[in-house]
C-alpha cells in the first residue's frame, strides 16, 4: 500500500509564503467602498483611524497592491504553528467509496484551535507597532477571541473581548482559555456599554449576536484612550492576512501536481473562505484556471443564499461604516445556532462582490446534516471538527458522493478551519437527538430587510 | 533573523519509523517477571490470554526482539496524524533568557489530544485481527479513553470505558468526545461490577482511582464473551508502541545535528516517558552516549521519589498479575489532583528497573508550580498544555534556568504529551487562586505500604 501522495504534506519553513496576497488587485470590478455612516459618502482613510489601527486601515483601503510583505516578526510567529498541513483524506474517500480525491487544509493545530490566529497575530503586531495601549474585539464561537487573546498575550497588550452571550453560556471553557491569556471577557449584550444597555432594555433575554457584540467593542474602543477595535472576519484586511491559507494550499498542491476542481469553504463573515480561495480565485480572475468555488453557510443564517446585496451596517448598533454586502439586515438576530462563528448577518464585501458577479457559488446546509458529517469525518480522519468547519465537510462529502454517482475523479479541496473541543455541548445535543434545525421564514427575513439603511444610488 | 534550525521539524512519511523499538532487548538486567496472582509464580504467556489479546500478551512477554515491525495498517493510521513535530522552543528560550536549547516533541495534534493514540490504534488493530468482539479499559484524565474510543470506532469495535469518577465529574466534555466515537462510558467505581460495588460500600464518596477503574474494566472483560481488556500505560507492550515518539525525536534531532544532554518526560504509568526516552536509553545502555534522563511526577502521587520498589498489584481489586515496580501500594487513593493522568499508584516495570539501577533520575513537583509553568509556556509557544505534560515543562524550565545561572548551553528535550482543552476546570482553579498543593505525609504513604502483598524472595 505504498502511496505517492503522502497523507499530510507540510511545506518547509523556506517554502512558506513571505507575502500576503491581496485579491482586490486582480478583481475586474472592486467591491463598493465603505461609507461614512454620518455622510453616507465613501469613507476616507483618516476617518477610520479613531476606530482602527492605522496600518490596518491602510490595508483595508488598499485595492491595488497585489502582494504585501509579511513583517518578519509575524513570519516568525507563524513558524510556531505553521505551515499547516495539507491532508489527503484517504480514509474519508475510502469510507465514502468515491473516486474523488479529497484534500483539506487543516488550520486547527494551535491553541486558538482555528485559522483565526493568522490575522490575530498580524493585528496585534500592528497595534503594538503603533504604540496602542489596548484592543477590544468581539467573538462568536470564541475562536477569534481565543486567537486574539493569544496574540495579545504575546505582545503584552491588554484586551477586552465581548463574547456573544449564547456562546458565553454554551462554551464556558472557551472563556477560561481566553482568561489564561489574560483577556477580559464580557458577555454581550452587557451593561458596560450604552449600546448594550439599549439592546438589553429591548430584550433582556437575548442571546446576543456578533453584530451587537461589535457595537459594544467599538464603543469601548473609541471611549478608551489608546485603544482601538479589531475584527476577526468580514474586513478586507482580514482576508488579506488569511490569504496565507490559500497560498500554502496552492503551493502544496503544486508540489503534488494537483489542482482542485472544486474549492469549498465555510462562510460566516468570510475570513477562512476568502483566505482559502484567494489564489484559486486569482487564477479564475486572470483566466489561468476555472475551479468551482463553493461557499457553505448555515441554513439558519443564510446571508449569501437568501440575503440582499445592499449597503448595511456591520453591527447592530449602527455605529460602523456601511459596507455593501450580502446581508440579512443588521437587526437580524440569528437563532441559537451552535455554529456560533457563522452567526453573522453580513458577509465580506470582497466575497459578496465576487458572488454577485458570478465567480462563486453558495449553498446553505442544515445543522443536523452538518453534525452528521462532522461525526462521520471524525471517525475516519481522527480530527474532531468545529461545527463551523463541518459545514465545509458536509459540502465536500456531498460533492464526493456526486462523483461516486457520475464516476468522476474530481479533486476537491476544502478548508478545515478548526477543532471542536469546545463544542461538545453541541455535539451532545446532536448525539442525544435534541438538536433541531431552524430555518428562518421569508417573513423572519423580511423584518431584517425592512430595516436596511437607505443609501442613495447604490 | 534567519535560523538554520526550523521552529518545527516534521519527518517525511518515508522517514517515519517502520519498527517499534523494544528497550528490554538492550537492558543489562531485565525487569522482574509478572507474577500469577494465585500462585505468585512467574506468569506464563497462556495465563495472560483470558485478559489480554494474544498478540499483545506476546509483546508483553517478549524481552529479546529488539525491533518489532509495525503492521502496515498501523503505519497507515499513524500517517493520519504523524509524524508529530519536533519543535524548537525559540520563544520560551527567549522569555527565559537561557543559553539552553529547548526542544519538545508535541504529541497533541490528533483528536485524542495526546500520545495515547500511538498505542490505542495498535491495540485495537490486534484485537480486530484476533476477531475479538469488544474491549474494555479504564481512563484517568480521559486521554487514553478518548484515544481508544477513536481507534475502536475506526475498527468498529465496541468499547466500554471505566472513567475515574473525579475526572468524569471534572471533565464532562471528555465523556462527550468518547461518546462521539460510540464508546460506553461508566464512572468508576460503579455499581456495574462486583469490585466497584465493594469499593463503593467501603467509601460511597470516593473519587476513584486508576487502580480501581482497572479492576472494574478487567472484571467486565473476563465476564463478557469475546471481550478483552486493554491498558494505556504501565505495560511493556505500551512502552513498545510508544517508542515511536522517541524514535521520531531522535531521527529529527539527528537531522539537525543535535543530541539531548537531558531528556525529560512526565511520569504517571510511564507510557510517554518510556516511549520518549527509549532510543536515548538505548544509547546509554550500550555506552554510545550518556544523556541525563529525568522523570517528572506529581508531588501528590510520588511513585518514583517516595514509593517502594516491590511486587504489587496493578489494580485496587487485586485481580491483575503482580508487577515489580515503584509503588505507593494498590490501596493508595490519590487526592483529587487535577493531573488525572498521573494519578496512578505504580509505575512501568521497565522504567522502575532502570530507575532502580541508576539509569535515570526522578523529581516530584507541586501542582501550582506545574500550572504556573503551563500558563507561562502557553503564552510563549501558542500551545495550551495538558496538566500532565506541564510537569515536564516545569522541569524543562527549571533545567533551563539552571543553565542561565551556569551559562551552559545545554540541549534539553522534553515530551509535550498533549493539549489541555479539557482541563479548563483545573486552569480556572489555578487562575482564580483556589488550587492547592497536596503532598501526602509519610503516614499517608505508610498505609499503602502496609498493604503491599507479601511475595517471597523478591
Give an overview of the whole structure.
- The structure is a homodimer of 458-residue chains.
- Chain A has 458 residues and is an alpha/beta fold.
- Chain A has a domain at 8-16 and 70-113 and 236-449: 3-Layer(aba) Sandwich (Rossmann fold), CATH 3.40.50.
- Helix content of chain A is 41%, strand content 16%.
- The first copy, chain A, contains 18 helices and 15 strands.
- Chain A has a 7-stranded mixed β-sheet, with helices on both faces. In chain A, strands 8-7-6-9 form a 4-stranded parallel β-sheet, with helices on both faces.
- The radius of gyration of chain A is 20 Å and the shape is globular.
- Chain A starts with 7 loop residues before the first strand and ends in an 8-residue tail after the last helix.
Describe the secondary-structure layout.
The structure is a homodimer of 458-residue chains.
Chain A: E1 8-9, E2 19-21, H1 45-48, H2 54-61, E3 67-69, H3 72-81, E4 86-88, H4 90-96, E5 101-106, H5 117-129, E6 134-139, H6 143-154, E7 159-164, H7 165-170, H8 172-180, E8 184-188, H9 194-202, H10 210-222, E9 227-229, H11 236-255, E10 262-266, H12 271-285, E11 292-298, H13 303-306, E12 308-313, E13 322-327, H14 349-356, E14 361-365, H15 367-381, H16 387-406, E15 411-416, H17 424-431, H18 442-450
Parallel strand pairs in A: 5-15, 6-7, 6-9, 7-8, 10-11, 10-15, 11-14
Antiparallel strand pairs in A: 1-4, 2-3, 4-5, 12-13
Amino acid at each position: 500500500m505504498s502511496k505517492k501522495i503522502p497523507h499530510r504534506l507540510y511545506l518547509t519553513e523556506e517554502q512558506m509564503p513571505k507575502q500576503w496576497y491581496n485579491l482586490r488587485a486582480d478583481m475586474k470590478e472592486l467591491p463598493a467602498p465603505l461609507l461614512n455612516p454620518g455622510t453616507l459618502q465613501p469613507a476616507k482613510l483618516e476617518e477610520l483611524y479613531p476606530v482602527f489601527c492605522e496600518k490596518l486601515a491602510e490595508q483595508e483601503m488598499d485595492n491595488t497592491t497585489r502582494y504585501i510583505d509579511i513583517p518578519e516578526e509575524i513570519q516568525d510567529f507563524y513558524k510556531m504553528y505553521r505551515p499547516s498541513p495539507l491532508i489527503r483524506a484517504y480514509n474519508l474517500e475510502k469510507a465514502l467509496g468515491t473516486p474523488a480525491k479529497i484534500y483539506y487544509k487543516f488550520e486547527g493545530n494551535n491553541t486558538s484551535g482555528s485559522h483565526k490566529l493568522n490575522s490575530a497575530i498580524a493585528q496585534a503586531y500592528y497595534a503594538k507597532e503603533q504604540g496602542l495601549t489596548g484592543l477590544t474585539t468581539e467573538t462568536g464561537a470564541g475562536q477569534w477571541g481565543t486567537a486574539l487573546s493569544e496574540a495579545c498575550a504575546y505582545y503584552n497588550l491588554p484586551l477586552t473581548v465581548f463574547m456573544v452571550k449564547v456562546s458565553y453560556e454554551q462554551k464556558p471553557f472557551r472563556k477560561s482559555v481566553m482568561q489564561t491569556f489574560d483577556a477580559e471577557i464580557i458577555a454581550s449584550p452587557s451593561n458596560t456599554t450604552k449600546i448594550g444597555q439599549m439592546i438589553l432594555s429591548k430584550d433582556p433575554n437575548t442571546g446576543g449576536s456578533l453584530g451587537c457584540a461589535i457595537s459594544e467593542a467599538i464603543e469601548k474602543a473609541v471611549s478608551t484612550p489608546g485603544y482601538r477595535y479589531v475584527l476577526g472576519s468580514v474586513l478586507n484586511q482580514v482576508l488579506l492576512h488569511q490569504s496565507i491559507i490559500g497560498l500554502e494550499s496552492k503551493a502544496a498542491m503544486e508540489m503534488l501536481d494537483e489542482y482542485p476542481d472544486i474549492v469549498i469553504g465555510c462562510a460566516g463573515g468570510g475570513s477562512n473562505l476568502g483566505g482559502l480561495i484567494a489564489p484559486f480565485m486569482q487564477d479564475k480572475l486572470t483566466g489561468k484556471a476555472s475551479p468551482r468555488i463553493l461557499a457553505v453557510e448555515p441554513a439558519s443564517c443564510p446571508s449569501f443564499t437568501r440575503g440582499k446585496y445592499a449597503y448595511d451596517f456591520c453591527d447592530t448598533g449602527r455605529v460602523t461604516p456601511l459596507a455593501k454586502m450580502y446581508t440579512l439586515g443588521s437587526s437580524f438576530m440569528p437563532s441559537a445556532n451552535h455554529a456560533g462563528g457563522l452567526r453573522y448577518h453580513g458577509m465580506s464585501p470582497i466575497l459578496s462582490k465576487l458572488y454577485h458577479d458570478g465567480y462563486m457559488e453558495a449553498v446553505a446546509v442544515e445543522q443536523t446534516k452538518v453534525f452528521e458529517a462532522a461525526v462521520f469525518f471524525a471517525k475516519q480522519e481522527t480530527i474532531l471538527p468545529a461545527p463551523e468547519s463541518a459545514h465545509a465537510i458536509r459540502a465536500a462529502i456531498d460533492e464526493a458522493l456526486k462523483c461516486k454517482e457520475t464516476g468522476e475523479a474530481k479533486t476537491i479541496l476544502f478548508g478545515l478551519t478548526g477543532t471542536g473541543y469546545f463544542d461538545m455541548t453541541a455535539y451532545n445535543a446532536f448525539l442525544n437527538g435534541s438538536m433541531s434545525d431552524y430555518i428562518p421564514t421569508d417573513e423572519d427575513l423580511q423584518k431584517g430587510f425592512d430595516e436596511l439603511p437607505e443609501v442613495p444610488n447604490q
